[in-house]
Each structure stands twice: as C-alpha cells, then as structure tokens.
C-alpha cells in the first residue's frame, strides 16, 4: 500500500468547491483545509505507484481550479 500526502494550491475563492470534490474520492482517507502556502492537504492511500499516477491524472489534473500540487510519498521507515 502506498500512502501519500498531497498538498494542494487552489485558485482563490474555489477552496470549498475543490475540497468537496476531492473528499468524494475513496482513495482520499483524510482531507483538511489549511492556512498558509497550501489550501488543502490530502492523505491518499493507493495499492501501487501506478494507482497514484492515475489519481493525479484522472482526479487532480481534471479539476481546473487546482493551480498546483505537491505530493509527498510516506516512507515505510517508522524509526
């Protein structure tokens, strides 16, 4: 299982619309509206890296109100 955190920047005034759209996706396990450089943070779980690619291509890139994303893939290291 791949766990990733996706940091999302949204065009001003569209935060609620994008938030509501993203939280419908079953791969999104947690979603937060936040203050600061990013507008939304998602915790996404997918079986493979290819499925993460599909999430980016089929979900994130199809929402025109999203200006930018940054994806952080969680390490299995639990030190």
UniProtKB/TrEMBL annotation:
Pfam families: AsnC_trans_reg (PF01037). Gene3D superfamilies: 3.30.70.920. Residues 6-74 form the Transcription regulator AsnC/Lrp ligand binding domain. InterPro entries: Dimeric_a/b-barrel (IPR011008), HTH-Siroheme_Decarb (IPR050684), Tscrpt_reg_AsnC/Lrp_C (IPR019887). This is Transcriptional regulators. It comes from Thermococcus nautili.
């Amino acid at each position: 299982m791949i766990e990733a955190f996706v940091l999302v920047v949204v065009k001003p005034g569209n935060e609620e619309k994008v938030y509501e759209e993203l939280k419908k996706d079953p791969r999104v396990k947690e979603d937060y509206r936040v203050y600061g450089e990013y507008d939304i943070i998602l915790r996404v779980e997918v079986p493979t890296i290819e499925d993460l690619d599909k999430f980016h291509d089929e979900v994130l890139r199809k929402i025109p109100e999203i200006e930018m994303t940054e994806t952080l893939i969680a390490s299995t290291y639990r030190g």
